[in-house]
Amino acid sequence: MKAQPKASHFVNGTYVEDSAGAVIEVIYPATGEVIARLHEATPAVVEAALAAAHAAQKAWGQTRPVERARILRRAADLIRDRNADLSWLETLDTGKPLQETTVADWPSGADALEFFAGLAPSVTGETVPLGRDFVYTLREPLGVCVGIGAWNYPSQIACWKAAPALAMGNAMVFKPSEVTPLGALQLAEILVEAGLPAGLFNVVQGRGAVGGALVTDPRVAKVSLTGSVPTGRRVYAAAADGVRHVTMELGGKSPLIIFDDADLESAVGAAMLGNFYSAGQVCSNGTRVFVQRGIKDRFLARLAERTAAITLGDPLDMATQMGPLVSAAQRDKVMGYVETAKTEGARLICGGAVGADLAGCFVQPTVFADVTDTMTLAREEVFGPVMAVLDFADEEEAVTRANATEFGLAAGVFTADLTRAHRVVAALEAGTCWINAYNLTPVEGPFGGSKLSGVGRENGKAAVEHYTQIKSVYVGMGPVDSPY
Questions:
Q1: Would you put residue 127 in left (φ > 0), alpha (ψ -120 to 50) or beta?
Q2: What is d(CA 308, CA 364) in angstroms, rounded to the nearest whole number?
Q3: What is the rounded CA–CA span in Å between residue 258 and residue 123?
Q4: 120, 201, 224, 400: which one has the fewest Cβ atoms less than 10 Å from its Cβ?
């Protein structure tokens, strides 16, 4: 039990255990070893977390924003000071290599806490002159927020949700994925150490029933979910019954369009980042790579060369560039898509098998060419290191086919013609787009999708809209003019 936490839950400023809850085993994906054993939250634990959040929120909402900001900034500093240990734990929890977790997971969480700490004191209302009278507005916290995390970036997601919620004066009850439950507990402990009052950030473990209990509780004002479209549908419907605020960051099948005037090395590198980073387990991945026919052969040849050089292996070795998938179930699901692609006629360029001589949940980085729009690989989210390369003739065709999906999370364009780049991005139906880059998500920029990929935005100033509400106050400066 090399990663056993002090207890399963963190409620009202302290660790809490209730062994009556169903067991959750945390498995290290690289070896299959059980590294921690937790318990699902019982109704008593869920009630304690919600009651603590509800009790603590009012005073926190009335705290000066600059004082809230100081606490979040101290938490960011603590995370950076402990990044080595936190990244090691993140690697055990997810299977992602240390080469990634040391730079992309907790560090981006610290960035979120720091950004919203800086933003909090600047969030103000406005005055509206009406002649003699006037209206002023107040930005008020929503109250108790529920955050539901995903397993691919568990600690980053916890920070992305906690930072704006707390900065704007809300309380949060956070439920991590049962697959990766460890990082959120560390965040809760760090926030309290930084000075956050008890009850404002609580962590409860569990599966769907625990999430359902949180989402439907009448004390909850807001739900923020990162997850799949099917889960999003269920959570959205449950939240709607109570007319709660909702932010949903769901799945994608994002297009990456590469024109024949693009810098080839950069385009290949972006396609690899958009398909193989985190073993392909990134919601915004550009898994439909549209390559203009003039450079298709050169692109595939260079892609195969660079993919062959990827180091697959022990995630705790800093030389490892790609680790296992998060679970055996996910590995088997991805390999099912690989076999379907072969059956449907896609041409395998490289990969296409589980990791040779590796005991864990490894899948080789895989590329298929000659993929058509109707193939399963081009329509469904694989969530693994499997790239589909499609070819196209001209800009109009590329845009039309890129938009022919129910998803709309992300999209990318590579071209030397920046006029064309901006024109194509304007035509793409996606909430987050890149030009001559891919999958860079700084906290300063809003992130989120359109269509079935979600509603609302995380990060950037836009997140303020999703964790506050406006109160309008009309001020009469003279006698009331009444016809009665």
A1: beta
A2: 10
A3: 40
A4: 400
Q: In this structure, how many other beta carbons lie within 10 angstroms of the beta carbon of residue 481?
A: 6
User: Count of alpha carbons within 13 Å of 482, Cβ hemisphere only?
Assistant: 4
The C-alpha atoms of residue 465 and residue 47 are separated, in whole angstroms, by 28
Instruction: Scan for tokens 């009630």, then name that residue.
Output: 47
H or E stretch including 387? strand 386-392
For tokens 């003699």, the residue is: 132
Residue 245: which H helix or E strand, with range? strand 245-249
- What is the rounded radius of gyration, in angstroms, for the C-alpha atoms of the chain? 24
pLDDT digits (tens, 9 = 90+) for 315-336: 999 999 999 999 999 999 999 9
Tell me the C-alpha distance between 260 and 295, whole Å: 5
CB atoms within 10 A of CB 321: 17
Q: Which tokens go with 388?
A: 């589909």
Burial (Cβ within 10 Å: 0-12, 13-18, ≥19) of residue 408: buried
Residue 312 per-residue DSSP state: B
Q: Say if residue 439's pLDDT is above 80.
A: yes
- Check if the beta carbon of residue 333 is closer than 8 Å to that of residue 385: no
Find the distance separating the first CA and the last CA of the chain, reported in whole Å.
76
> Do strands 220-226 and 144-148 pair parallel, antiparallel, or not at all (unpaired)?
parallel
Q: Is the pLDDT of residue 356 over 80?
A: no
Answer whether 86's CB lies under 8 Å from 79's CB. Answer: yes
Residues paired with 25 in a beta bridge: 37
Q: Which residues pair with 129 in a beta bridge?
A: 134
Q: Is the overall model pTM greater than 0.70, yes or no?
A: yes
Task: Name the residues annotated as catalytic.
Answer: 161, 249, 283, 458
User: Dihedrals φ, ψ of 57, to 5°?
Assistant: -70, -40
| 282 φ/ψ angles, rounded to the nearest 5 degrees | -130, 125
Long-range contacts: 426-433, Cβ < 8 Å, 24+? 427/399, 427/403, 428/255, 428/399, 428/402, 428/403, 429/403, 430/254, 430/255, 431/457, 432/284
Rounded to the nearest angstrom, the gap between the alpha carbon of residue 176 and the centroid of all alpha carbons in its chain is 12
Q: Are 307 and 280 in contact (CB under 8 A)?
A: no
Flag whether pLDDT at 357 surpasses 90: no
Amino acid symbol at 228: S
Q: What is the mean pLDDT of residues 127-131?
A: 97
**Nearest-angstrom CA–CA distance, 440 and 417:** 21
Distance, C-alpha 302 to centroid of its chain: 30
Amino acid identity of residue 355, one-letter, is G
Contact 302, 403 (CB under 8 A): no
Per-residue pLDDT tens digits for 392-433: 999 999 999 999 999 999 999 999 999 999 999 999 999 999
